[in-house]
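I have been asked to look over a protein record a colleague put together. Alongside the sequence sits a line of tokens, each denoting a local backbone shape. Please read both lines and tell me whether the tokens look consistent with the sequence. Take the sequence as given and treat only the tokens as open to question. I have pasted the whole thing underneath without changing anything:
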Amino acid sequence: MSVNGVTGAMANSYVPASTEKTTAAAAENRTADKATANDVGVVYEPSKAKDSKKTNYSSVVSNMKKELSTKNQQLQNLVNQLLGKQANKYTSLADLFKNINADPATVAQAQKDISEDGYWGVTQTSDRLVSMAQALSGGDATKADEMIAAVKKGFDQATKAWGDELPDICKQTIDAAVDKLTKWRDGISE
């Protein structure tokens, strides 16, 4: 292959500035081009490519809110079925749930929901707690200790509202969430 063929093509396409026409019409065109270029300016357009390491936390929070709203409605319906016929007043939530008679279908649904792979089970609930904490921190693992403290504070407030010790599944969920947040803080997991 000859290099002369490539360099020869390039030489023919280059026109030196000294051979450019310097007529009044050419000068007017240059002035008009400059004015148009000044009017347009530079516009920044962010890349549309998604960075695989960054998470869009606003969509995470939005999805969590939608899912939680649906699940809260299901839980509320379940509680209404359980308590609909009971008109007694109780001093604490713990007392409210001591002597509940529920139909077998409601019991089966509740057991399914709190099972290991159920929506209100330890794994999924702790995952949601961690996702929410990560979203609230903006994905900043240095804020994990603040998030852990907030989760524990919420657990303490729930215990106080309950009026007694929370069920074991609640303790297991908080422990799992704290463990996952600790691993996230230490860079062991995302």
In short: The radius of gyration is 33 Å. Helices lie at 3-13, 24-40, 57-83, 93-96, 104-113, 122-136, 144-162, 168-185.
